[in-house]
Amino acid sequence: MKKNKKNIWEFPWGYTESFSVMGGILITGFLLQFFSGNVDIEMLHASANLIIGIIIFFIPVVFTIFRKKPIYHWFSGIPFSVTVIATLLILSLIMGLIPQQTGSADLYSDFSFRMGFTRISSSWPFVLVYLICLLSLETIIIKRFLSFRIKDYPFYLIHLGIWLLLFTAGLGAADMRSYVMYVREGETEWRVYNEKGQVLELPIAIELNDFDMELYPPKLAAIDRETGDIQPIGKPDFYQIDEQNPKGNLAGWEIAIEKYIHHAVRNSDSTYREVHMPGASPAVKISARNQQNNIVKTGWVCAGNSAQLYMTLPLNDQYTIVMTQPEPKRFLSDVFVYTKEGEKKHSIIEVNNPLRLGSWTIYQYGYDAEAGRLSSYSSFQLIYDPWLPGVYIGIILLAAGALCMLWSGNKKRRNEYEME
What we know:
Elements: H1 15-36, H2 48-63, H3 70-75, H4 78-97, H5 111-114, H6 124-146, H7 153-171, E1 177-184, E2 188-193, E3 199-215, E4 219-224, E5 238-240, E6 247-250, E7 253-266, E8 272-274, E9 281-290, E10 296-302, E11 313-314, E12 319-323, E13 328-339, E14 344-350, E15 355-357, E16 360-367, E17 377-384, H8 388-419
Antiparallel strand pairs: 1-17, 2-3, 3-13, 4-5, 4-12, 6-7, 7-8, 7-9, 9-10, 11-12, 13-14, 15-16, 16-17
């Protein structure tokens, strides 16, 4: 008996209709993008994003009225879900492959710029697909809850986590702010500059008690006394100071460490002593032996800084031994942070160890690179994101669901093994 072939747009809809619908949404998005430009994310700040979020939340709830209709089963079904995820992944792939940038008037004539390829996260195609993804995901969750089964808890945790993560990260983007604040030692600062160079006063202030830095041991190099070129030219050779391995070779000279002081100040014109103070600089006493004629040169070498002069060890008329500036190992700021609500908190802020205070996250951003340890200021990056707790909760739910799914899967396999 010959089967009747189902026509397109005849229910139940499958992958053909799903890809057609998403194709239409993408075309609509690119047309909006081409003629009107990017979505103005700044318009979605509080409380506009909260209102939009409530509307997004209640649309799938109201949509359950049609849960017996074929359109509902298609919207919450596998073909459409797979299509939406695939579309979102393609847009994310474009975002990863094409450098993203902030648009300006002189770039507006560029085709990729006008189509939103260089600003995917705020382009109309991405925003429309993102909204469809949220609505479809919530519809799937509600549909599953309507036939609730306790053994499906990994499904609920994973999908609720993904939905909450997408919901808070997307709608919270308009409220997120990023500033860089420069604070001098002993002073309190609450002002920053925005992108237009205007001064803004923040509801949070930072008092810098002290800025400190830990340094790696520096390196030694042989340079040409006339040109300053590090030898050998083209393939410069460095000797990393290491008291556990006190010998090395530079430009045909055998180098041996006699004494190394990490925090050193000049004791005389040609000697150093250990003093722990801001102006201290690494210094090393070395002996250099020429491997051809056994001539030996001994003396101190110091990189110096803004507080004291450098010192080199001349080897002959052509070469001299110098010390490179030590590279920072760790830099940190001892601060007090104040809020308008009267809260005061003491913290040590360093790279990868930010301070979180309410909706604010404060990162160690930089310092005066030329002054190094003697930097008179420290710079901080302040991130304001009131939706961040929702993102964390979404991640926790997602991780918990994944672990529960692994556990239930292993339990099921153990039961099948015992039955055998």
